[in-house]
Design brief:
This protein is an alpha/beta fold. It contains ten helices and 13 strands. The strands form three sheets. Strands 8-12-7-11-9-10 form a six-stranded mixed sheet, sandwiched between helices. A five-stranded mixed sheet has the order 4-3-5-13-6, sandwiched between helices. Helix 6 runs antiparallel to helix 10. The longest helix has 25 residues. The model has no long low-confidence stretch (mean pLDDT 85).
């Protein structure tokens, strides 16, 4: 494969249109179709599902996205390095998260790390829970932030817990239940509920959603593709979202109530130990201090 093929793949993934991707790449539509077909043949997977009306990226295409982005970025950086031979080498750190709200938690940690490593170039990815570990296992990510669901026993991975997080109910500040500090499962009876796509959730939260959905009519439930969308609907008064508490932003129009008898979740960082990687170790120390209030690991 070559960087031109990868750039064509990224153009189609971003536009979900072979015609618009061809315009962006300044080539004909048959030419970009040929590049994608050649890449699919080399990888022995289907990257896109194509019909006469739409283009969809496949799960295999989704998992290949960070690899393609990294390879194109590395190639571009290599060219720039030889154009500026006196420039110090770029130091990369690839981080995966399960939601954009999690990424927002990292701003201060990355700011502090950037002051220590002036040539730092972070690469940030957002992927569903299961795909995050694929990024880590294939080397596309140096570390991932996620909830430990108790099923990961990989001997080559290290997990560091940063905090415990309860499961919370999120609703509009003017909601009848908003004045309470906590609510029970029974308190949610008859209340419209907002759920996330289970693929983006750890098993504990997905199971809780299905339990709450039992016996409900479709009109009482709103389904969202992401945590962010669920928070927006809750803030708009469409119902109560059930989410890990640490993922909920501190907005004045939101009420965040602990859900009684729900399990606490362990949130932290997964990574493969890299002896001698001082930057990775330093980031873990900074992130743990910033996200849990502790000094050191």
């Amino acid at each position: 494969m070559n960087t031109f093929q990868l750039s064509c793949f990224l153009a189609v993934a971003n536009t979900l249109s072979f015609a618009r991707a061809a315009e962006k790449m300044h080539i004909s539509q048959p030419a970009i179709s040929h590049q994608i077909q050649s890449l699919e043949t080399e990888l022995n997977v289907q990257l896109f599902r194509r019909t006469t009306r739409l283009v969809e990226i496949t799960p295999e295409g989704e998992s290949f996205l960070p690899d393609a982005q990294s390879m194109v970025a590395i190639a571009a950086q290599a060219k720039l390095r030889f154009q500026n031979p006196e420039e110090k080498p770029i130091e990369k750190l690839s981080i995966g998260c399960g939601s954009y709200n999690q990424l927002c938690l990292l701003s201060e940690s990355l700011d502090e790390l950037g002051k220590l490593y002036p040539n730092l170039h972070p690469h940030l990815f957002v992927f569903p829970h299961d795909q995050l570990f694929q990024l880590l296992e294939n080397g596309s990510a140096d570390l991932i932030f996620d909830i430990h669901d108790g099923t990961r026993n990989d001997r080559d991975l290290t997990y560091r817990e940063f905090r415990k997080s309860p499961i919370a109910c999120v609703c509009q500040r003017g909601h009848p239940l908003a004045a309470a500090d906590s609510v029970s499962m029974g308190d949610l009876n008859g209340q419209p509920l907002i759920f996330c796509n289970p693929i983006n959730l750890v098993p504990e939260v997905a199971k809780l959603q299905w339990k709450l959905a039992e016996g409900r009519s479709p009109g009482e439930l709103h389904f969202c593709a992401s945590v962010e969308a669920a928070v927006v609907l809750a803030g708009a008064g469409f119902g109560i979202a059930v989410l890990p508490k640490f993922l909920v932003p501190g907005e004045p129009h939101l009420a965040v109530l602990n859900l009684c008898d729900a399990p606490e979740l362990s949130y932290g960082i997964f990574y493969k130990p890299y002896p001698g990687d001082d930057m990775l170790k330093k980031f873990i120390q900074i992130a743990k201090r910033r996200l849990s209030g502790e000094e050191g690991i």
